[in-house]
Amino acid sequence: xxxxxxxxxxxxxxxxxxxxxxxxxxxxxxxxxxxxxxxxxxxxxxxxxxxxxxxxxxxxxxxxxxxxxxxxxxxxxxxxxxxxxxxxxxxxxxxxxxxxxxxxxxxxxxxxxxxxxxxxxxxxxxxxxxxxxxxxxxxxxxxxxxxxxxxxxxxxxxxxxxxxxxxxxxxxxxxxxxxxxxxxxxxxxxxxxxxxxxxxxxxxxxxxxxxxxxxxxxxxxxxxxxxxxxxxxxxxxxxxxxxxxxxxxxxxxxxxxxxxxxxxxxxxxxxxxxxxxxxxxxxxxxxxxxxxxxxxxxxxxxxxxxxxxxxxxxxxxxxxxxxxxxxxxxxxxxxxxxxxxxxxxxxxxxxxxxxxxxxxxxxxxxxxxxxxxxxxxxxxxxxxxxxx
Length: 388
Known about the structure:
This protein is an alpha/beta fold. Helices cover 34% and strands 17% of the residues. A nine-stranded mixed sheet has the order 1-2-3-5-4-6-7-8-9, with helices on both faces. Helix 1 (8-14) packs across helix 2, helix 7 packs across helix 8 and helix 7 (236-248) packs across helix 10 (275-283).
């Protein structure tokens, strides 16, 4: 699983509400016709479909939000509509436009209300997404297709999420003319894995405006990670993944992964319950257990084998940031995977943070992130620091 914890702001908002679902509803914005793809021209990936002012967000003073809907592609190449938000920094744009960060969020859920652009705090808030505009970077934050727009959301099917990130950039430029040409990607958790995917996709696309990616707390070898789960352990996060696998592979039977009791509540996850609520719901099921050896179920293995972008060459610098106390992302597995990417690519660096967990590493690494991002826009060479 990419994320076993919500962003800290989401965790904090849960306590006074009495339940994660109540907190989710309190943080929600209305799902409007803006998210309806009927009649949209999806013929060209990255084409802007519509835009509107982003209203109702709890933004720092001076940041301007603009919603976008644009054409993208799912994991099988099928045209889909995807939505997101563009955040502009306070003040006037510099000559040449704002430098751009394409943001990939961590696991939010699989239901339409789980789109960050439908949350008052954009899901991460001060845990990530607000910092960048205050430092002078525009942020293009995709929701990923199937979140906000009608699903299903192909959670962890990285080709789909990579398409959503890459296609968000030209759409955002069309919507917000003050954006500059050059961009980097930053992603956490699900978005961290997507950053590795984007770097692999850019090896073939060869977009001269793409300058590199930062991958924070990414899952790499899904199969090896999931094999470490205690036998029979029930997990709301893995229930979401099962729904995501079925979205990408309709022949997949999620019961082979999560068992019959958890499979019965998947419709609630697919309709409303986002990450925190999914975790709470599955934890409340008496005696729920996942089948033994579920990571080796045929449908699961097909999925894990299809989502290993660390085995592909990438383009542009790649910085991987990992907390050494992250229960969701095993350090040794990540080191092995990034070592494989290092064999295929020069500008790769892995940096770890002692004592930091899955969420804490975001804040702990901000100085390094900002230094690295500034170097990319300044055209300075990237370091290589591969695991030994």
